[in-house]
Automatic annotation (TrEMBL):
InterPro entries: Gfo/Idh/MocA-like_OxRdtase_N, Gfo/Idh/MocA_oxidoreduct, GFO_IDH_MocA-like_dom, NAD(P)-bd_dom_sf. Residues 1-118 form the Gfo/Idh/MocA-like oxidoreductase N-terminal domain. Pfam families: GFO_IDH_MocA (PF01408), GFO_IDH_MocA_C3 (PF22725). One of its GO terms (molecular function) is nucleotide binding. Residues 129-251 form the GFO/IDH/MocA-like oxidoreductase domain. It comes from the Bacteria. This is Oxidoreductase. Signal peptide: none annotated.
Amino acid sequence: MKIALIGCGFFAMNQLHAWNGIAGAEVVAICDRDPERLSLAAALAPKAAAYTDAAEMFAAGGFDVVDLATTVGSHRALVEMAAAHQLHVICQKPIAPTLADARAMVNAVDATGKTLMIHENFRWQSAVRAVIDALRSGAIGEPFFGRISFRSGYDVYAGQPYLAEGERFIIEDLGIHILDIARALFGDATRITATTRRVNPAIKGEDVATMLLDHTSGVTSVVDCSYATRRSPETFPESLIEIDGTLGTLRLDAGYTLSVQIGDQVETRDVSPTLLSWADRPWHNIQESVQIIQQHFVDCLNQGIAPETDGQDNLKTFALVEAAYLSANENRTVDLTEL
Ligand code: NAD
Ligand code: 89Y
């Protein structure tokens, strides 16, 4: 599988390392309009052709898959270029700035018969997968309540300065992953009620969001996110999860500890992520999930099946993001059919 990567910034380095660890995958082209970032990426893909212009790269061709690691503003144009060249696409989250753009992008790739996967990697973190697998095993019976919580004081602005500058921050950037975990666990949601706050005066968007979801499965879930929470231990970038079911409870606690309680019996195990050779703590959790989702994409293409977070699926996660902002702005519950 020959891959072209567009966007060689902060996060793309993880994607390049991950491609280098996947048998049968080869990055043959890299592109960034910033030559300095391009040359840093070239160190991880020394045989790849390097471009500063995406249109030139598409015209030269020689690849089957485009992996987009640019920020959101460029996603629609690049996905549409990839569709025009009949290519499979992986696009980083958030898929687009608006739901209208997102729908146009999904339609553009669907019309070619190629695959679009949104790089929604948090549901592939090994600790989160352990919770998904335990829930799907039926061990705690029918779930009726869930909470997925991401609260941290980690300085994300240092590596990603653009996060301090957008009108929207935590729901669009991080909450999107946590909402996606809620969907992976409990299925689609019908209604959402959200509140937001900005605590850090040095940023433009909201850094705290609390969301209440009704799922078609009958589960009520709470998704809460904060980058204004000073806590010990600092749990970045862990998502903490609690699920109550008719037969018992599941807890993913700080330090990647998973407990399953059935009746009075509690079983606890360590579900820490593997520290890959190229990974750094505390990011190793996210970095491992990048390798896993990219492997999932390759496996799905080889088997001719859709990846879990394909374009159609991700429209539902992105609709929750839009609905959460609408709810917070209008101070009301939003029914997803409104969007
Ligand atoms: P970044 O600004 O560090 O890197 C983006 C790069 O894309 C820059 O080098 C920029 O020059 C380049 N670029 C932008 N438009 C381009 C274009 N049209 N043609 C060529 N190059 C272009 O951003 P980042 O922090 O690496 O984030 C990239 C994406 O990854 C964002 O969508 C972000 O939300 C996402 N992200 C995902 C995760 C995750 O866990 N899934 C984590 C962090 C960031
Ligand atoms: O951009 C974000 C993401 O997708 O995961 C964590 C992050 O890097 C900062 O919130």
